Structure formats: structure tokens, C-alpha cells
Amino acid sequence: MSVMLRPMARADVPAVAELEIAVFGQEAWSADMLAGELAGRPAGRYYLVAEDDGMIAGYAGLLAVGGGQADVLTLAVAGDRWGEGIGAALLDGLLAEAGRRGCTEIFLEVRTDNDRAQRLYRRHGFARVGLRKGYYQPSGADALVMRRPLGPARDAGPQQAASEAPARQAMT
């Protein structure tokens, strides 16, 4: 069995919505929100899933209209799959896509109490640039704002295997 990254399809929305609830609880995006994001409303969205033997083990989303700034919108890996490199592979896929779109920097928000995700992002060159008080709702949890400069487009593509790095962003 090997985990493969591929673009998210409309048919993936129910499984991704279940993963959202399992990972984010009350702060999960609804299936309707996910479907809207996948439909590109607003434009510039890019979503990947990590699939293993027909099951969704993780997913991630990016906003990158082209050039300038990109934003990691979400990144989630099933809790029983943490530590397998799925989160790192998904993040690499988003970074590569942002590079292909000509972006020069990428931002994200991560809960201040999510040390695992923060370690993943730091390993990928992100640094703290700010704090957003009460960002996550309904919990009111604070978010660190992190930034990473981007270089030239990389060759990583959406069909890469996800077997080499650590874990997930229960993680946005």
C-alpha cells in the first residue's frame, strides 16, 4: 500500500467532510463549504487528497490566484495516519503548486496549541510573523500566522508518493 496525492474531486467531498469533523470538531468546514471551495468559489483554489487503497487519509487546500502571495487554507490527516509523512507530502504538493503559479511567498494560520503542526511548518521553512487573537471559531483559539518565501517552481507533482516525512495539521 502506498499513499498517492491527487487533485480532490467532487466525489471526495463526503469522505473529506467526515475527516474534517474527526480532526476539527466544531470548527470543521461543512460538506457544502468544501463543495463550494472545490468548485473554485472564489477562484484560485487548489485541493489535494492523499489516497490509500481507496480511502482518504488526508487533504489540503491552497489559495493562489497567481503571482505574489499564496495561502494554505487547510491541511488535515486522519489521526491514525499521523507520523507517516502524509502531512509533509500534502504540504510539499501545495508549495509546488504555489511555485507553479508564480507565487513568491506563502502564508498560513495554525492554532497556537497545535505544536505538531507548528513543527511540520517550521521543518518546511515557515516562520512566525504574527498572532491572530480569537481566530478559530467557535472555540476562540488564537492562531499563529506563519510565512515562507518561495523560490522557483519545483518539480513535485500531484501524483507523488507520500511515504517520506511526518504528519498532519489537525493542523490548520
Textual characterization of the structure:
There is one protein chain. This protein has 172 residues and is of the alpha+beta class. The protein has one domain (4-149): Aminopeptidase (3-Layer(aba) Sandwich), CATH 3.40.630. The protein is built from 4 helices and 7 strands. It has a 7-stranded mixed β-sheet with strand order 1-2-3-4-5-7-6. A hairpin with a 2-residue loop joins strand 2 (45-52) and strand 3. The two termini are 27 Å apart.
The residue-averaged pLDDT reads: 87
Give a quick account of the main beta sheet: strands, pairing sense, barrel closure: 7 strands, mixed
Briefly note the structural class of the backbone.
alpha+beta
What gap, in angstroms, lies between the N and C termini? 27 Å
Report the β-strand fraction as a percent range: 25-35%
The coarse overall form would be globular
What CATH architecture do you see? 3-Layer(aba) Sandwich
**Whole-number total of structural domains:** 1
Mind sketching the topology for me?
Blueprint: E1 4-7, H1 13-24, H2 31-38, E2 45-52, E3 55-63, E4 68-77, H3 86-100, E5 103-111, H4 115-123, E6 127-132, E7 143-149
Parallel strand pairs: 4-5
Antiparallel strand pairs: 1-2, 2-3, 3-4, 5-7, 6-7
Quick description:
This protein has helices spanning 13-24, 31-38, 86-100, 115-123, and strands spanning 4-7, 45-52, 55-63, 68-77, 103-111, 127-132, 143-149.
Structure characteristics:
alpha+beta; Aminopeptidase; single chain; 4 helices; seven-stranded mixed sheet; 172 residues; disordered C terminus
